[in-house]
Design brief:
Blueprint (H helix, E strand, L loop, with lengths): L6 E5 L9 H12 L7 E5 L5 H7 L5 E5 L16 H6 L4 E4 L2 H6 L4 H13 L3 E6 L3 H5 L3 H12 L9 E5 L13 H18 L2 H6 L1 E5 L4 H8 L6 E4 L6 H8 L9
Parallel strand pairs: 1-2, 1-8, 2-3, 3-4, 4-5, 5-6, 6-7, 7-8
The site of 2-phosphoglycolic acid has 13 residues, from strand 8.
Amino acid sequence: MTTIRPLVAGNWKINGLTAQLAELQALKDRLASEPALGADVLVCPPATLLAQARWALRGSMIALGAQDCHPLPSGAHTGDISAEMLADAGASSVIVGHSERRTDHGETDALVRAKAEAAHRAGLTAIICVGETEKERRDGETLEIVKRQLRGSVPEGARATDTVIAYEPVWAIGTGLTPTPEDVAEVHGFIRAELGQLLAPREADRMRILYGGSVKPANAKELLSVKDVNGALVGGASLKADDFYAIVSAYRGENAA
Ligand code: PGA
């Protein structure tokens, strides 16, 4: 069986003014005493904080990511930020296709794929989000929706080293609700199998599949120990160093690389 080093990623969304960097510093200090931590740690602050966060995180094991990018490297697109700009600001990853962007900005699978390709072009890891709405789950369409999103959003030739999938049931985001471990196992197993259809076996077997949606210190261990769950994408609980650290600690002493 392939061992996959897990990733715990924090998504700050539009939370965080300069003062929030103190939480990053606190997280850095706590993780500095955890050399054997069995997971990679990534924080995705708002783009406005990337440059400062880069300096705050210098010398730490915490990687820096962004929350979205434009598909093009440059041009006349007021207010947008390219993957190249994010890389230039110190990001190593970028989230694409988060359900909030799919909903708020009408992002299609094709656009999400173009953004993932832009991330790769700029040397960034693309964290591609998929997940069903409450109605879709109720209607028994979860696997169909996830399949359509994967087929439409994952670039051809995506590799385990440059792409991460995040399964985030829309109804679980920010609600305190979570799927049962059995439901998570079903979808993650399905995603692994789908990746096997889309990608070379080596990439499909090694690609990280994160779970996201109301991950908290209290449920992290249970959710993160589900088969084919290779880490978490954490929103609200990533804003407080103590909570995020507690989630990351689910991997203490495990799979240390
Ligand atoms: P949440 O958000 O942890 O606050 O539910 C997760 C996400 O949207 O990535």
